[in-house]
Structure formats: C-alpha cells, structure tokens
UniProtKB/TrEMBL annotation:
Signal sequence, renumbered to the chain: none
GO biological process per UniProt: chemosensory behavior; male courtship behavior; sensory perception of taste; signal transduction
Species the sequence originates in: Cardiocondyla obscurior
TM annotation in the entry: 29-48, 82-103, 123-145, 202-225, 245-266, 311-336
Membrane-protein topology: Multi-pass membrane protein
Protein known as: Gustatory receptor
Length: 354
C-alpha cells in the first residue's frame, strides 16, 4: 500500500479534470496519503489486538449458549431475521461498490491507480464499520431478548383467563424459580455489557482513523457535487454528477448504519432500568427485592458507550454533527474557491485592458 503512493501521488498531481484547482489537488494528495495510512493503521490494530478479537469471538459463542439455554423458558430468539438483515446490508454495500466502480470508469475513465488511492481505502474502512455494525446488531438483539424475558416475569398465565389480581402477580415474582430466572438474566445482562465494552474498546482506534478519512472524502466529493450546480458558465456533466452521488451514498451508508444501531442498543440498555423499576414495584419478598436492587445498582454503575477512542460517541447525534460539519466546510471551500476565481478574472481583465 505504501509503495502504491509512488504511482497514486503523481497521478493526482498531473491528472486533468473539470474544476481542477490547487485546492482540489492538495485534498486529493492528502486523501491518498491518509487512505494508505488508515489502511495500515487498521491492519496494525487488528494484528496487535488479535487476542482481543479471539476473546470477543469466544464471548459471543458463550453468550449464544446462554441464550439457547433460556430459549426453553422464553420465546426463541429470531436469529433468522437478524441474519437476513445482516445479509441485506452486506449485499447493498457490495452493490454500491460495484456501481461506484462502473460510474468511476464512465465518468472519469478511472483505472486501477485511481482505485488504489480512493476506492480501496473507502472499501476497507466501509467494511470495517459494517463489521462493527454486525457485531453490535447481534448484541442488540440479545439485549432485546433479555429485556423481553425480564418483562415476562411480571406476567402470569391463568388457566381460566380471568383478570389477574395484584396478589397473583406479586406471588409469581416471589417464587424461587422466578428469583433463579432473575439471577440468570442479571448474569447474562452483565455478560452482554462486558462484551459491549470489549467491542467498543477493540474498534475504538480503527474507527477514529476511518471516520477521519471518510470525513475528508465527504468534503472532497461534496465539493464536486455542489460546485457544478453553482457555476452557471459550465455544462453540467450528468455522469460525473451521478458518480459523485454514488460516492456520497457509499461514504454515508456504513456510518449511518453504525450510528443507528448504536443508538438502538443504547436505548435497549436504557429500557432495562425502567423494566426493573416496574418489576420492583410488584415484589414483596426480601430476597426478590434484594436481587432487583443489586441488579439496579449494577446498571447504575455501568455506563456503556461506543466511542471513537473517547473523542465522540458514535450515535445518531454524531451523524448529525458530522453532516453539519461537512456542510460548514463545504460552504467555506466554495466561498474560497469563488473568491479566488473572481479575483483571477479581474486580474485577467485588467491585463487585457493594459
């Protein structure tokens, strides 16, 4: 990858295209170098934390065994639905990459050298974020299953279908079997929280590098999307415009998936506290109340966050901030570019008059 810069950087410096300027060339060179560094950093992080990755895989296998043991007491987990959603996400990402390659060739006549400098780093970072998304999706489904099991503890199935009395509902919570189930759910919830923290720590630094690269690439492609629309004296190239739109979709797609699922899992974790509060209001036994309070304290002292090395939380608020920051930088770049072109025209007119 580092050796490919000997071909990619001269290609960026001497390439000819519409709206080419010193600013765009500088961004392209920076994008090429940063893309190479990001790929190397991600691969290096994976190599160094290989043991953590193996431990994560073992923990996921263990939690699946625990889920299977509880499936006999509660409704089974809809794994097929989760797997189908993950398969659709992967297929859509592959389709975006294929369409991107086709439009790159049609719009710019791009070849392998161009693909090494921009598409390959984007592909690598995108799949890393989708891998992160897939793991969080599995954990989120398990959290939802645990919450559903906790909610089922407050329900009683009566054979005569008569309305349940408050005493009947409380009596179920006090039973020894219910306390045992509550302990199992508490341990499983704790295990899921530990896995979530390990996943967040493992992807923390690679995500920071990847988001930085995608941020720069978003600004670059956003500039080429807006610039032709604001320039009245240039003919609009629809192939280039479509290619830029595909670029923006390819960049936003993995980020939006990741931030959306992280927002969902944080909400799912927050639901557990309210469910325990409702369950505590039904409990009358000392043992049950003690276990519920201990479970509540466990939730109170454990704050799960998915961050990029502690710099920002990867939820939907980050996606909104990212889009707002990109738009702000685009406005600055366009104003700078329009000011430069206007001053160059004035200088050209003055030269003609003289």
């Amino acid at each position: 990858m580092i050796g490919s810069n000997y071909f990619s950087i001269p290609f960026r410096l001497y390439g000819d295209y519409e709206n080419r300027s010193n600013l765009t060339v500088s961004i392209e060179v920076l994008q090429t170098v940063l893309g190479t560094l990001v790929i190397c950093a991600i691969l290096l992080a994976y190599s160094i934390d290989q043991r953590s990755l193996v431990r994560l895989a073992n923990q996921l296998i263990e939690i699946e065994h625990e889920i299977n043991r509880l499936c006999c007491m509660y409704r089974p987990l809809r794994r097929q639905r989760v797997l189908c959603n993950l398969a659709v996400v992967c297929v859509l990402n592959v389709c975006l990459i294929i369409v991107l390659l086709i439009t790159e060739n049609l719009a710019w006549g791009a070849g392998p050298i161009s693909w090494l400098s921009d598409i390959l780093p984007t592909f690598h970072v995108g799949w890393m974020l989708i891998q992160y998304f897939m793991l969080v999706t599995i954990i989120q489904a398990n959290f939802a299953y645990v919450n559903q099991a906790i909610q089922n503890l407050t329900r009683v199935s009566t054979p005569d279908l008569r309305p349940q009395s408050l005493y009947q509902t409380r009596r179920v919570v006090v039973s020894n079997s219910t306390v045992h189930q509550l302990l199992q759910l508490r341990d499983m919830h704790c295990h899921l929280c530990e896995i979530s923290e390990d996943i967040s720590n493992f992807y923390s630094l690679p995500v920071l590098f990847g988001i930085t690269f995608l941020f720069l690439t978003l600004i670059y492609n956003g500039y080429f999307f807006i610039s032709p629309l604001l320039t009245a004296d240039e003919m609009l190239e629809y192939k280039a415009l479509i290619n830029t739109i595909i670029w923006l979709l390819t960049l936003i797609y993995p980020i939006s998936l990741l931030t959306n699922i992280i927002t969902k899992i944080l909400k799912e974790i927050g639901k557990t506290g309210s469910m325990l509060h409702n369950l505590l209001s039904y409990a009358i036994g000392k043992e049950t109340k003690s276990e519920l309070k201990q479970f509540s304290l466990q939730l109170l002292h454990r704050k799960i966050q998915f961050t990029a090395n502690g710099y920002f939380v990867l939820d939907n608020s980050f996606l909104h901030s990212l889009i707002g920051t990109v738009v702000t930088y685009l406005v600055i770049l366009i104003q700078f570019q329009m000011g430069s072109s206007h001053s160059s025209r004035l200088h050209h007119n003055c030269t003609k008059e003289n």
